[in-house]
Amino acid sequence: MTNIPPPAEELRLLDWELRQLESRRxxxxxxxxxxxxxxxxxxxxxxxxxxAGPPGPGAAPPSAQNVLLTLGGVLLTIxxxxxxxxxxxxxxxxxxxxxxxxxTLVALGAPALLLRRSLRSTAEAVAGLAxxxxxxxxxxLRYLALPDVDALAxxxxxxxxxxxxxxxxxxxxxxxxxxxxxxxxxxxLPLVLWxxxxxxxxxxxxxALLVTAAFDTALALWTTVRSVRVVALAGGCALGLWGAxxxxxxxxxxxxxxxxxxxxxxxxxxxxxxxxxxxRAREPRIATGAACAGGLLTVAAVGGVLRPALPSAGAxxxxxxxxxxxxxxxxxxxxxxxxxGLAAASAAAQGLAALWALPVTAxxxxxxxxxxxxPWSTAPQDARAALLTELPLPxxxxxxxxxxxxxxTLLVAPGLLGVPVGRPGPAAxxPGPxxxxPGPxxxxPDPVSPPSGPxxxxPGPAAxxPGPxxxxxxPxxxxxxPxxxxxxxxxxxPGPAAGRLGAVADPxxxxxxxxxxxxxxxxxYGAPVLGWAAVVALPAGLGLPYAVGVSxxxxxxxxxxxxAGRAGSAGQALPASVxxxxxxxxxxxxxxxTEAATLATLGALTVPFLAVCVQLTRCPxxxxxxxxxxxxxAALTYATAFACAAGASWGLRPGHVGLVTLxxxxxxxxxxxxxxxxxxxxxxxxxxxASCAVAVTLTVGHAPTFALALALAGLxxxxxxxxxxxxxxxxxxxxxxxxxxxxxxxxWEVTAPEAYTLPATVPALLIGLxxxxxxxxxxxxxxxxxxxAATLLPSLAAAWSDPHWQRPLLLGVAALALxxxxxxxxxxxxxxxxxxxxxxxxxxxxxxxIVQVTGALPRWLPPALAGLLLLxxxxxxxxxxxxxxxxxxxLGRMH
Length: 895
Prior knowledge:
Layout: H1 7-42, H2 62-86, H3 93-116, H4 120-145, H5 151-172, H6 179-186, H7 190-197, H8 202-222, H9 226-253, H10 257-280, H11 284-306, H12 315-326, H13 336-366, H14 398-417, H15 496-505, H16 514-542, H17 546-565, H18 570-590, H19 595-618, H20 625-649, H21 654-661, H22 663-675, H23 681-698, H24 703-721, H25 729-747, H26 753-774, H27 780-800, H28 806-825, H29 828-856, H30 861-875, H31 877-892
């Protein structure tokens, strides 16, 4: 609810608020007066501040004014088109042309007057109308005076004249922004329309496009008007790309040297345009991109000229050679962005050539997998026929040659680009700068050996230019100057020699930074991979005999493994191991053609992988861990395959081959035990388990052999479980032994369930007993429950369907013994399971007699006995409840 104060109190509050407002108004007025005094003392620095508030109703923002002017100009232009093209009253085309010419002259002169009155937007709108009227004047002129002239030829001439007139008009009235870009846009048409008018060929049309693009490029590089530069850049890019694509198409379609040379000249012209743009561009990224395009066009031009003289399959190698030669341009005296673009163009040409050649390598690696469906069938004629498919190139030998050429180029590229390949080492001297005292003339450097580090000289006429210029050794050793210069951050004066020397030492500025790292990575990893790809494709390309081809692949694997195991090759161990593994998989499938080749190849692969694994294991370098794991897994895989192939070669059955193969996981488990806590232990154990699974799977077809293989596998797992850190392997060992016993019993056609359950129950009870001795607090359900249930429950199920008396009697005796033992030792699991099984077994034995007695008694006696039982239980309900609780508590106190 609102509490209204008394009138006197409210009046007092109002007076206090008014006094506060008056005081604040006085402060603001004083501040305003002071600010006006400061502004008057400073002089007229600008227009007076406008009062805050919404704009007046007559004020229109510039955007709305521009929209209105543009809309008016468009409407007037539409009206002029309708007047000229359609008709207007009784005037003919001549009268309409005269009226239109007069209106055009007025429209062209009006912007000058409007600019003098500072009506720039209105002048732009009228100028746009005048430009449209000039186009309509040209249209009317053709219909009046030149009706027989070809439309394309007249359009070409008219566009050239209009572009010139609009350019002069824009330069005359410098305040207008529309005529100059419009003139540049119109200048794109004359040469193209003229080529179409004279029905010029493809080469002439392409030349017209490139000449126009050259004009646009020059205009974009040298003009200072932003709108003109944007229009020229857009036109140059569009027409340049169109012309370059047309020239490339003509070069690819050239069937004789003359046509190829004409197309090559066009491509070189396009490359010249791009290189000039790169030379003059202000932005380094744009310069690099334009130089890259120019380099690619140069490669396409020279390679296109060479293509007709080469075989059909030699076109790509020809382009590749041109791209490699282009890399030498980085040593020329060109701007650094241009050199980077040319290097990128060379890299792009080599990358495209590599993509052209790599399918041959991929086919040589993947095609031998087809021998998995036809092992030991026949010996192929040569390495090319062993691939079971056709290679993607008609001359497959060119692919490895191209790859080898690219790999060699990557090896020499760092030296050509001035990029050190090795990792930078520590400096030989302390990192502090040694500075010379300032002075007009610097002292000559010490002839003994200049100190390494940033030694800076004072600026002066004799300043030594910086750069990696080595001082020639002096045969006469001169002691160093004992006077040390005082410290001071004095830098040397730069000179032109420094730039030239720096360009020679590091042409691309790539010694440090992402580009240098990319070059080093390509040299360190790309060159070996491409060399490997060339060697892999070489046997199929040469068509070597089958045995020679397989031997060559095995030698490649051995060489790669030698590189991986070489001391100090921490960075190369893993890549070399991966390449060796890929080659080994391919040659392993390739060797499946004949029995001798399979055995020899698998044996030859197992030994070097195992040797390199041992060598890498002894090397403490962490980078070799992955290579060691890879070679260990490969060695175990090929050892398993060799054991299987050897068993098959001896004519053994698959089950016996599996038993022979179990020697590999046994040796692997022994090696893992010798390794201890080494990083290879777990991978070796995993591969041993996989090899054991393969061996056991081979014995499935023969039950006795299968049981023996399971038992041997369990023995291997038991041996592994003896190690302190591999105790969980005991579970696998027990499971394997149990499976072995079951398979053996099944082979003997044993159907008694106790024969299958007792081998599991006895070890389980022993394990439970040992666990309870170690930890007496363990529940009897955990220790003995699984073992007892594994035998009692299947035996009870068999006893209920057994017509004989021996099984129920033995089961009852065993259940009674378990019940008494559970009660004696206060163990819940034996008591409950034994008592339950004993009760059910007794019920099963007494069931026939109960049925006979029930049939002999009168019909009324069973209900009467049931009623008496219920009365007795009801009368002693409290006592029975106390007994049940006492039994529950006693059972709960048991383990």
